[in-house]
Amino acid sequence: MASVEVHYLPQFVAESDLAGATVVVVDLVRASTTICQALASGATHFLACLEVDDVARQAEGLDRDGVVLGGERGGEIIPGFDLGNSPAEYTPDEVYGRRVLFTTTNGTRAIEHARLAGRLLIGAAVNRAALVADIVQNLPAAPRVCVLCAGTAGVVSREDILGAGAIVSGLANAGVELANEWAGAARGEWQELENTARSARRSVAEHFALELRNTPGGKNLLRIGMDDDLARCAAIDTLDVVPERAPGGEIRLP
User: Fold this and answer.
1) pTM of the entire predicted model
2) How far apart are CA 182 and CA 165, in angstroms?
3) Quick check: 85 and 226 in contact, CB under 8 A?
4) Cis amide prior to 245 (ω within 30 degrees)
5) Cα separation of 194 and 203, whole Å?
């Protein structure tokens, strides 16, 4: 029987417990959304790095015109880097045909934590439908799915729980069994958001963006004046991409 479990933080699950599973990393605000956007804009691949110095080392000896240095610390662009962590920055003009070397406070650490996965996918609201369809298609060969939330500075983040809930809801609708209590809780949070949106006569994406204003990651964006990214991260099913980490560590499209 195919099953899905949710883990609210990387430290809540051992790396070995993710080994062999299909793991979906969710850092909704904003790394997951930005990776999806960049690959949809034609970036050849992402390489997630833990530290700023790791990005510099990876860039050594590469043709600088073919490389984008991207990422953030404290939500803001790293000095000397080309782009920050806003999906709005990763346009075709900036990234088409180029590789992105990328580091963020939370998302890249969650990706590294899941490195033993049988498949490591990047999940967000923007690619939810494509992601769910891909997972469902591959369930016969990969029946165990784990959704791993990145959190914010080591703290559980509601934005990631809602992103996980959107994905779990789609999988549950396809007959995938909820394997732990956090999967059920995340799905419940998402269903409550959908119901509240209907009651308020708002689209789900519009209401989602409002909800993000009260989450840890959302508050961080408000603090640095990047409110517009909340709507970008709350957009639902807008990108037909399923980023996957290859054996060499690059995150790319199949």
Assistant:
1) 0.97
2) 9
3) no
4) no
5) 9
Give the gyration radius of the chain's Cα atoms. Answer: 17
* Residues in CB range of 14: below 8 A, 6 or more apart: none
Residue 132 tokens read as: 């769910």
With b for 16 or more beta-carbon neighbours within 10 A and e for fewer, the 88-98 pattern comes to ebbeeebbeeb
Partners of 148 in beta bridges: 7, 25
Identify which of 207, 246, 227, 237 has the alpha carbon closest to the alpha carbon of residue 40: 237
Q: What is the pLDDT of residues 140-183, one digit of tens each?
A: 999 999 999 999 999 999 999 999 999 999 999 999 999 999 99
What is d(CA 131, CA 167) in angstroms, rounded to the nearest whole number?
A: 8
Q: What amino acid is encoded at 180 in this protein?
A: N
Q: Which residue has the higher pLDDT, 146 or 61?
A: 146
